[in-house]
Amino acid sequence: MKIRSLTLALSLGSLALVVSACSSDFGSAASAANPPAGDRLLVATTVSPITSIASSIGGNKVDVEGIVPEGTNSHTYEPAPQVAALLSKADIVFINGLKLEDPTAELAQANMKSGANLIEIGTTVLPEGEYIYDFSFPKSEGKPNPHLWTDPIYAAKYATVIRDTFIKRDPKNADYYSENFVRFDKKATELANALRKDQATVPVGNLKLLTYHDAYAYFAKNFGWTVIGAVQPKNFSDPTAAEVAALIEQVKSQKVPTIFGSEVFPSKVLEEIGRATGAKYEASLRDDDLPGSPGDSDHSWLGLMKYDYITMIQGLGGTTKNLEAVNTSSGVKDSAKYPQ
Fold it and tell me: Is the dihedral of CA 239, 241, 247, 252 positive or negative?
C-alpha cells in the first residue's frame, strides 16, 4: 500500500465485491444528524469519480472537496496556488496514484499538516504485477494506465480503501461508514451484473473499443472487451498521419461499428476515421467528467459509468434494458464540492 502519513497504518481488509441486502436507501446511519463542521474530517480529492465515491462513503460525517476541475485533462493538470491552502488544512488527501497526479501529490507533500494522510488509492488496490502498459502508457516511461475507476470491480475496491481510512481516522462513526460502503458496494455490484447481461446482447465480435482517451484498459480486461486503440497518444497530442492510417485500416479490418470520442475533447481525427471507415462517431463518452451538474441525481460515479456503459453497448449494437433499470442513487446525499 502506498500511504504517506505520520499516523495512519491502513488495513484494506476484504477487497471482494459483496452483495448485501439493504431494506431501504435511507437507513439509520445514512440519515444521522450532521456533526458540527469542526468535528468533521476535511477530505481533499483529485478527480471527480474519486470525489463522488468518497462522498458516498463519508456522507455527512466528512467534508469532501475536489481539486481537479471537471472537464480538465487530469494527466496534464497543474494545481493552482490556492489548492495549497486546501491541502494544508485537509486531514486526508485521496489521489488516484499510478503517476496520474504527480504535481498534486508533490504539492500535498509540501503543504500537508502533521498527522494528515496522503493516500494513493489506485496504487494501493492494484498490485504492480497487474499494471497495464500500452500504446498510450508505454512501460519505458514508467507510468502505467491509471484508469481503474471505469471498472466497477475496482471502484468497489476504491470504496473499501476510503471506508477503512475513514474508520481509522474517525472510529466513533465506523458503523456509519460501513453502512454507506455496503450501499455503494451493492450498487456497484448491481451495475456490474447489469453490464454483463447487456453486453451479451452485442453481436459476437463487436465488443471492441476505439476511443479518444485510453481509459478502459482494466475494464476491458475484466469484462472481456478489446481495446483496439486510442486517438490520444502518450503525449496527449493528435496522432501522426501514419498512426491515423493504421487506425483506419484496423477499424475496417475488424469491422468496428462505432468509435467513441470524448464529450469534453472533440476530436477531428475520430471524425476523419469515421468518415473513412463508415463507422459511426459517438462523441459523448466520458472518463472522469460526471454527467449533469453538482447536485443532480446522476452527477456521481454511478451515473457516469451507467451512462458510458449504455453509450458503448448501444453503439456496438446491443440493448441496455438492464443498465437502464439501475437506480444510481446511493442513498447518501452528495454534499461534496466539485470545482468546475
Answer: positive
Predicted confidence at residue 55, as pLDDT, reads 98
HSE-CB of 271 using CA atoms within 13 angstroms: 6
Instruction: Tell me: pLDDT of 8 over 50.
Output: no
- The CA distance from 152 to 41, in Å, is 26
Which residue in this structure is represented by grid cell 502506498?
A: 2
State the DSSP string of 159-181. Answer: HHHHHHHHHHH-GGGHHHHHHHH
Q: Of 124, 129, 158, 177, whose CA–CA distance to 2 is shortest? A: 124
Model confidence pLDDT, tens digit, residues 111-155: 999 999 999 999 999 999 999 999 889 999 999 999 999 999 999
List the one residue out of 59, 66, 10, 60 whose CA is nearest residue 43.
66
User: In this predicted model, what pLDDT tens digit does every residue of 175-198 receive, in sequence order?
Assistant: 999 999 999 999 999 999 999 999
SS3 call for 216: coil
The span from the CA of 257 to the CA of 271, in Å, is 14
Examine the pLDDT at 160 and tell me if it is beyond 70.
yes
Q: How far is CA 179 from CA 22, 24, 313, in A?
A: 9, 11, 32
Q: What is the mean pLDDT of the chain?
A: 89
Give every CB contact of residue 138 below 8 A, 6+ residues apart in sequence.
234
| Site of grid cell 453538482 | 294
Helix (H, G, I), strand (E, B) or coil at 66: strand
All structural domains of the chain: 24-192 (3.40.50.1980), 194-324 (3.40.50.1980)
Asked if 2 and 128 touch (Cβ cutoff 8 Å), the reply is no
Strand, coil or helix: what is 98? Answer: coil
Please state whether the predicted TM-score (pTM) of the whole model is above 0.90. Answer: no
